[in-house]
Amino acid sequence: LDELATKARASAGFRPGVASTPAGPADAVRAAADVLRYARDVVVIWGERLAAGGRGGEAVETLLALAGALGVEGKDESGLIEVPAGTNGRGLREVGCSPTLGPGLADAHGEGMTAAEIAEADQLGAVLLFEATLPEAALAGASAVIAFSHFHGESLDVHADVVFPAAVYAEKEGTVTHPDGRLQRVRQAVGHPDQARAGWWVLAELCDRTGAGLDILGAPMVTELLTEAVPFYAGITLDEIGGQGVRWQERDAASTLAPDEPSTAQLAGPPAAPEGLRAVAAPSFWGGYETEHAPSLRFLATGPRAELSVEDARTAGVQSGDEVRLAAGGESVIAVVAVRTGVPAGSLFLTGATLPDAPVEIATAVVAGAVDA
Q: Of 324, 315, 328, 325, which is closest to residue 359 (Cα–Cα)?
């Protein structure tokens, strides 16, 4: 956030000229800002996790200020591209799978709840988990739990009233949306095992049996309903998507999406950086249910790993290979330390586990030098 704010300020106030050899980080930022501001086209790629946490709001406002200073608005080949935190994050948001948005990015009627808010709710009614998880305490407090899951798990076995087998990626068909807005087809590669059925099929039948029938007879009809519900998808067909995909922004129907009002945020100084280490999720290339459940791939799986900067490792008195207990927000996890020069001081990249968005304390060193990192 601090670096973004610095860049935005530099972009707004720096004038073109011949950049000299930078004398330090501030000069380097000004030189980079000079190049960016007067470049013909600029694309800012940012991660969705930027907007998370206690400083997420300020981070987004700073990002918008940066975009304004770089003049990306109105340039056909310039703009902001968000990298979603999860698979098909943009597509899910555009069709209305969001607590605050309906289909077509319209304001949702009524207030929804985020996954974190659902997990922290005192009382829950019936919960339908579609390839998702909740803490065990939340499941225990729900009046009913219906889950779609790829595998059995202890928590679902104890708390779920009904568990439907969920299709893995190779068993699915439909569409996904690339971060740049391109709709792409997903084609089924393998058949469903035994009596398992596609998720849309089960959901459609549940709707039929609860009085909200949709009369869906096949996956193409699901896509058709989506293009009817999302105004800027209007008229797009699976045949048109084909193998290359379709960017809906390039179609006439994109005009149905009214542009947001320009941000009037003033670029004040960002809040002070919070004290303590901040954990950032760092997914492993080898992570996932495949390596967890396939005996032939299990050797690829790794336990929780905490990547620290040299400075923070020295302060905590740990080194690569030490096994430590990390604590944050009342939760803890045991992880193996890996000291990395590329990790910024004050950050902790956590792989194979999660912690609440709160300052992280390296509570104890469990075993020194237990694992060769």
A: 328
CA distance 192 to 372: 41
**pTM of the full structure:** 0.75
Q: In the Cβ-directed half-sphere of 74, how many Cα atoms lie within 13 Å?
A: 5
Residues of the chain predicted below pLDDT 70: 1-30, 33, 37, 53-54, 258-275, 364-373
Handedness of CA 225, 229, 235, 241 (dihedral sign): negative
AA letter at 94:
E
- How far is residue 309's CA from residue 34's CA, in Å, rounded to a whole number? 30
Tokens standing for 239?
């045949």
Question: DSSP letter string over 10-44?
Answer: HHHH----------SHHHHHHHHHHHHHTSS--EE
List CB contacts of 22: < 8 A, sequence separation 6 or more.
Answer: 28, 31
Rounded to the nearest 5 percent, the helix, strand and coil shares of the chain are 35, 20, 45
Tell me the longest C-alpha to C-alpha distance in the chain.
71
For the chain, strand residue ranges (E) read 43-47, 79-83, 124-130, 142-149, 162-165, 174-177, 182-186, 246-247, 278-281, 305-308, 323-328, 331-339, 347-351, 361-367
* Distance separating alpha carbons of residues 69 and 73, to the nearest angstrom: 10
